[in-house]
Every structure is written in structure tokens, then in C-alpha cells.
Amino acid sequence: MSWSALQVATTTEAIEAVSNLLMEAGASGIQVEDATDFIDIDDEALAREGKILDLATVPHLTSGAQVTGYFPPNVNVTEIQLELTPRIQGLSEFGLNPGSGEITVNQVDEADWATEWQKYYHPVRVTHELTIVPRWEEYTPVNDQEKVIYMDPGMAFGTGTHPTTKLMLQALAIALRGGEHMIDVGTGSGILSIAAKHLGAGVVEAYDIDQVAVDSSQTNIDLNPIAKDVKLGVNSLLDGMDTQVDLVVANILAEVLVPLIPQAFMNLKPGGKFLLSGIIADKFALISQTLLDHGFKVDQTMRMGDWYGIIAHKPTNDED
């Protein structure tokens, strides 16, 4: 049985946006190749572990990025290609450089590819405490403090390893003290909600804009019993919510964060924390100023490559 692969030539900063567009178009999974993944490889650290990596022998991009969406048989990928092309080019209107945005279509055998892609997805330590492990891998934590998040990325790899997700996981490790009531906006794979439960959060609610994303989250939550009581649902940002909570987290594009910021302020208790990521460098000033304009105080900023994360809080009544 042949599947169709739509491969988009793009840039590092547009990876998440292009991935979202492919998923919205019906892709069953996403594969990402990013030249920057090879920039920060620490040869000395690998050598200390007895590993030798000769990049000259490893096929990889030397610039830019490629995002591939995999579509099941009997899907009209020509129509999807025509619809996606202007949408990808339109990302420039949101301050993202889509690169050439050229889309190529290939056919792949499902059985061969399903085996091949799993070679590239292995356990990844993303913080001092958190390690992401694909469901098919056997893994033993190195110590009692290490917490394992099992993920089933479906036909995708790299889940949890993008800089925006890493930044948010690090922010959670900093902000959580235990017992907090948290809302995860745009939960996607559910990884932030699972991590929050590992780090001691109390009640966790997770929402995304469509049922497909919520179903994906449920698959991963089912792999992590610690997160079994996470409440999942379909919702657009915080529309219609009047609950005040201790923590709101959101790893989404900056243009979507802007309307979320005043909502988050209304839905946080005094002293409540707001964790944001998905902020490309040239949108950092916009998000920072919007937070200040709506009453937030910025506690900490974090950066990884061209991406930023922010920890902010809603002032208490006795703060200036």
C-alpha cells in the first residue's frame, strides 16, 4: 500500500507552522529535517560516551529545513498541494520566513517507511528531570529523580525535541512547586500536561482547537498513567472560560499568543504564572510588550537559537 509524502522546503523558524498546516490538511504524521539539528552536536561529549559521529557519512541538510507530511492512500494530494502552496507562502504575513515553500510529492511504501522512520526517534533527555522516550523503546532511568514521558508520535519523529517545547519543559521545571491547577492551551501532543503531572501539578486541563489534536493527546496520556486524570477537551484558546487557575501554559505561534494574553490574565489567580513559548526572535518584543500592556510582570526570559520562552505572572494585590 502506497502513501503520499508531501515534502515542503522551508526554514527552521517556520517548521512548526508548516507542520500545523500539513496536519490541518489531513497528514497522518510529520517528519522534520532541520539543518540546525547538526550545528550543536558535541563531538567531544559523544567521544566521552564512546561514540563517534562522522557527519560526512550521515546524510543531512546543510541549510534550511524540510517538513514532510504523510497522507494515506486514496487522498487527492494534488488538490492538497495546490491548497497548501499559497498558505505556506502566506506565513510571511505572520512574520515567519517560509523559505521557498516548494512542495514535492513522492510515493512511499507504508510498511518500509514505518520501520525506517523509527530508527531516528530515540530517548531524549530534555531537562535535568525529564526524558522523552518513544513507546517502542525499552528504557531504564539513570536515577530515581529522572522522570520518563512516553510518547507515540504516530508517523512523526522529534516529538518534544523542538526548541519551543524544550523551552516550555524547562519553564515548567522552574515554575511548578506542586499542587497547581493548570490549563494547557493548544496542548497538541499533550506533552506539557504529562510533564506537569510528573512535576507535581494538581488539576490539569488541556485544550486544543480540534478533536484530531485532542485524540492525539489522549493517545499519549494513555501511555503515561501519572497523567490519567488530565482533563482533555476541544476549545479555542480560553474562550468561554471563567475559572481562575494557578498556571496557564501555551506553546503556540506568537500571533495566537497575542489574543490569548488578556484571556490568560483574566483566568489566572493573583500571583498565578503564565508560561509562553513558540516566540520567534523578531516577535519577542511584541509579546513582551503585550504582556506588560495587559498587566503581567515578566519574571524570566529563556532563549534557544531563534526561539524564546517567557515566564510571567499576574501581580498580587499588594504588588505595585
From TrEMBL:
Superkingdom of this protein's organism: Bacteria
Main location: cytoplasm
Keyword entries, A-Z: Cytoplasm, Methyltransferase, Ribonucleoprotein, Ribosomal protein, S-adenosyl-L-methionine, Transferase
EC number: 2.1.1.-
A GO biological-process term: methylation
Keyword Cytoplasm: yes
InterPro entries named among the record's database cross-references: Ribosomal_L11_MeTrfase_PrmA, Ribosomal_PrmA_MeTrfase, SAM-dependent_MTases_sf
Keyword Transferase: yes
One GO molecular-function entry: protein-lysine N-methyltransferase activity
Reactions mediated catalytically: L-lysyl-[protein] + 3 S-adenosyl-L-methionine = N(6),N(6),N(6)-trimethyl-L-lysyl-[protein] + 3 S-adenosyl-L-homocysteine + 3 H(+)
Pfam families for this protein: PrmA (PF06325)
Binding residue positions for S-adenosyl-L-methionine: 165, 186, 208, 251
CC terms in the record's Gene Ontology section: cytoplasm; ribosome
Subcellular location: Cytoplasm
Function in brief: Methylates ribosomal protein L11.
Protein family membership: Belongs to the methyltransferase superfamily. PrmA family.
Protein name: Ribosomal protein L11 methyltransferase
Organism: Limosilactobacillus equigenerosi DSM 18793 = JCM 14505
Taxonomic lineage of the native organism: Bacteria, Bacillati, Bacillota, Bacilli, Lactobacillales
Gene this chain is encoded by: prmA
